[in-house]
Give the backbone structure.
Amino acid sequence: MRLYHSPMGISLACRLALAAADVDHELVIVNSRTGETKQEPFLSINPLGEVPVLECDGTILGQTVAILTFISDRTGGVWTRASGLDRAKALSIAVIAAVEVQSAWKMINRPSRYVDSEAGCSEVVGHARARLDAAYGEVDRQLGLQGDSTELGILEYYLCVFALWKVMAPAGKGLSSTPRLDAVKERVMRVTKLRQVIDEDIASYTALTS
């Protein structure tokens, strides 16, 4: 397998899933912050210009949730043993995270994609931050409906990245508390090999942005 990844991007969730399952893979770093994902040769791999991308057995897969479910199905993760109802509940949370949380972060990080003026950018960021706070709150609320899980799975790896963004990004300061989401992050980081992946990603991100 080959994973195309931008440090501290949402593709980190796929890194965590591969590491958790001890899957041998090649990691290809693509710096989304400098626009590498929007240029060749990456656009030939994914015309949408987004990571993650997973190459496996001659097939190219995109979209984080799809890649995560594939990794779990291939490696026999907890996802494969969950009931249909439990999978649907997990997917519901994942979709909220993708559609609401991730989209709000994109608006905050690149407001100029949506408006031209400086005043307009400030307005977009303010609106996106309110949306982000509400979205994080809904993810946290739905986690409370999930019930306790003794195993880590693809939802936890996915949500861990959103929890890390909330802590590390300046725009995350002052957002409402999300104790259940924070607990997911702590559970993931208590696993030594997963903590190592996160620490490596933070170091790579720091090196690329310094």
Remarks:
- The longest strand covers residues 2-5.
- The chain has nine helices and four strands.
